[in-house]
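User: Working on a comparison across species. This one is Malonyl-CoA:ACP transacylase (MAT) domain-containing protein from Phocoena sinus. Can you predict its structure so I can line it up against the others?
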Amino acid sequence: MNVRVARAVWALGRGVRCRSSASSFLLPPSGAVDVEELLRDATAAEEGPREASVRRLPGQCSVLLFPGQGSQVVGMGRGLLRYPRVRELYAAAHRVLGYDLLELSLHGPQEALDRTVHCQPAVFVASLAAVEKLHHLQPAVIENCVAAAGFSVGEFAALVFAGAMEFCEGSAVSPEEFLQ
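Assistant: Here's the predicted structure for Malonyl-CoA:ACP transacylase (MAT) domain-containing protein from Phocoena sinus:
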């Protein structure tokens, strides 16, 4: 970070308006912390001695993208039930939600499944159930996953897959509640 940028960042943090010329920036106080040095030290401390990283080819990496609300359909999840842990996911969702999400997903009615309160957990659980199938059939895809993302409620499945959020948190919270 050059001195001009450091001064601008410091000034903005103080609520000071900056003009276009560098000479109008206030100088940081004499005891100000050098942010660049702190970041460099923190990175070095976390990583330790840096080894040469081997860059993986695109064919050796995978990215999981989880769908959002609107992708629900009666019968979803039926083909996933034979894979390990899928029934456990639906049983856990039943405990958290207080109703049988698997029954609703398999048999509907579609109008009930389309309601936000039902479709979001249904898409969330079906997404994680699909990951279980993928893990069973092609474990290398999961092992080589470098990123996960999701659209709308799919963001919660991505967060659970990445280990940033617990399953029970994702199955019980709507996006509106999560963001508050």
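For your comparison, note: Residues 90 and 102 are 6 Å apart (CA to CA).

User: Helpful, thanks.
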